[in-house]
Amino acid sequence: MIDSDLLNLLPPLRRARGDRLYGPDEKHWVDLWKQDGAWLLGRRPEGAAKEWKNQIDKGLGGWAPSLWPRRLEPLVKRLLPETVAVRVFRNADRAPVAPLWRPWETDTSPWGEGPGVRRLVLPTGPGQAVALAYTTAWTEPLPDHDVTSPAEAAGLVHATAQVLRFTNDAHAVQARLEAGQAFDLHLGDFGVFVRRGLWFEAVPSRVTDYGSLFRAHLDGGFLLNPGREPGIIPLALSDGEWKAWKAVVETWIQGRP
Q1: pTM of the prediction?
Q2: Residues 6+ apart with CB under 8 A from 136
Q3: Which of 42, 121, 151, 218 to pair with 225, CA 20 to 30 A apart?
């Protein structure tokens, strides 16, 4: 859950590009939050606005049945081959509670123990619709799709296609590997964060005052997740930004009581 008091410490933004958020006087912050994955591929995701606009220009911004949920399922099955069914819900509150599947969090099977269902974290930007993937381990009757807007459903399809593309792209695979290695090199020895793939979160036993860690990052030019949920490592940090992030964590450790 987002801590609004922490998020409100961020000054009003004027614009955003990629992994950087710009405030007054062009001061910027590196976005380590990405709104829990909604902006996973940057704050101006390729083609997303065009897809939304195409549907809205057709008058399909309101709730209505569409073919988009059917188009989503084969993409999810390519992304998660054990999937046997996909269901779309209007928003997270209407969806059944389910463990999250985050892209590039682990190279092993995402299903593990427990119910055969995962809620997919996808870069849908401002979209509210969510998708759940089910396997044969799911023993309950499958729910029906929510009726959502074709624009929202199209956004899910576009976001899934983009994740699939970047999952299989050799250059993106190498970039994720290098980002993880850089994270371990600059931040791994502190024990403040634990990394799983491209995602990281604060270690509760080492970070008892998360607010102070959040504020230290904000002062140093980095936006952590304001809800203490996992953040994501940007792929395009410069050497100077890696050193700045390391300095933020080092200074925070030194300043603890």
Answers
A1: 0.91
A2: 82, 84, 116
A3: 151
